[in-house]
Amino acid sequence: MGQIRAIALALGMAGGLFGQADGPGRTELLNGVLWVQTSVEHDAAYEQAYRLARAMLDRARKDKTWTAAIEQRPGYQHLPPAVILDIDETILDNSPEEAEKAESGSPPGLWEEWVGQESATALPGALEFTRYAASNHVEVIYVTNRDAATKDAARRTLARLGFPLQRAGASIYCRGERPEWGTDKGSRRQAIALQYRILLLIGDDLGDFLSGVRVSTEERRRLAAPYASRWGERWIVLPNPMYGSWEDALYGNDGGLSRADQLRQEREHLRGMNHESGK
User: Which of 38, 47, 73, 268 is most buried, taking the most CB atoms under 10 A from its CB?
Assistant: First the structure.
């Protein structure tokens, strides 16, 4: 009987890693959330990134030909300078909401409930960097895929934490504020590039830098390859092991799949010790 129980326990653990067999939670999130919430390495990566961003900002301010956005158009040299940052997992820590998913699954309205609490905290280095930029007359602009209906909550959260903001949150560009402002942030970067010389792009997702990223993992690599020299200079990327367009690409960007089916497709991308990398 003890052997049968041991086998059942082992099967349950395997199901928990790659499905939902051990309850309603998202156990595959566990390590990612814990790394964000507990590791020194996470905080160090953010501090390091924002120190690098500050050094690059100083260079960019002195070079009138410098721009980070491929959406920038001729004549940008005469525009006032700005930096564009994503919000979630770039300047604000939403890991408590991800922890709820790891524990209890993804009940309807969980994200809206979290946003409504307005209790997100600033990520290491973010507040200091944005204040430094603003003190040097560089406009700080936030481009987020939070829905337009939650803009006021985002504005209040950023204001409470002390992030630089324009009046009435005009420096926050949300998804859906205009009909053409969808999930792809390119149209918003285009609108900003008409008004500002964009010195830096800072985010945790490939979509914070490029359009058309919701494709296969191979196509994402091909899309990013021509811009490799921008990383660590004009583009500053932050680590996010919890979610992102990188994960959606693993299961074909098909949000209609069950989580179990998504996980099965994700596992197909694993490369073991005897696997020949196709990179």
Answer: 47
Three-point CA angle 45, 50, 55, nearest 5°: 125
- The count of residues in the chain is 279
Residue 61 corresponds to which tokens in the numbers above?
Answer: 């301010």
Least Cα distance to 183 among 147, 151, 215, 150 occurs for: 147
- Give, in degrees to the nearest 5, the angle at Cα 18 between 17 and 20: 85
The domains found in the chain, sorted by start residue, are 40-94+119-265 (3.40.50.1000)
183 C-beta neighbours (distance < 10 Å), count: 11
pLDDT at residue 257, rounded to an integer: 87
Confirm if 22 and 13 have CB atoms less than 8 A apart: yes
Q: What residues contact residue 74 under an 8 Å CB cut-off, 6+ apart?
A: none
Element (H, E) at 51: helix 40-62
pLDDT at 231: 98
How much is the average pLDDT of 75-94?
98
- Chain centre distance of CA 278: 26
Do the Cβ atoms of 202 and 85 come closer than 8 Å? yes
CA distances from 61 to 68, 78, 123, 142 (A): 12, 12, 24, 19
Check residue 141 and report its DSSP letter.
E
- This prediction has a pTM of 0.89
56 pLDDT band, cuts 50/70/90, is very high
d(CA 132, CA 127): 9
Q: Is 195 left (phi over 0), alpha (psi -120 to 50) or beta?
A: alpha
Determine the residue type at 65.
Answer: T
The 10s digit of each residue's pLDDT in 169-214 is: 999 999 999 999 999 999 999 999 999 999 999 999 999 999 999 9
Residue type, 12: G
